[in-house]
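User: Hi! I'm working on a homework problem where we have to compare a predicted structure to a textbook description. Could you give me the structure for the chain below?
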Amino acid sequence: MKTILNIIWLVLSGFWLFLGYLLAGVILCITIIGIPFGLASFRIGLYALWPFGYTTVERRDAGAPSCVGNVLWLVLAGWWLALAHITTGILQCLTIIGIPLGIANFKMISVSLLPLGREIVPTDQPFASR
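Assistant: Happy to help. Predicted structure tokens:
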């Protein structure tokens, strides 16, 4: 079932969201200060490309730098990427087939707003990284 949902996701919104994260990552990697944010954008972009079967967990060892980085991320790129998830989630929830995809989009809003200090893991191992 995960594979079917991932293929439908890829066709309807995953590719476009991946391109959005890729664009944000390239723009953020232009400066040396933005490289950690660009790498986070690339990581989340891969998650947005193929989300079913994966989840995000909080890293307890992230510390204060990730908190400061999340505030900067929120201002620089987080709002725009979260708006993309909200828009595509609403559009997908208009059809019965798209409801699981819309829910997946809404689930990705939190990681698009505050990505630092989070890790993407398979859903069968959500506590393995702790």
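For your comparison, note the following. The longest strand covers residues 54-58. The mean pLDDT is 85. Good luck with the assignment!
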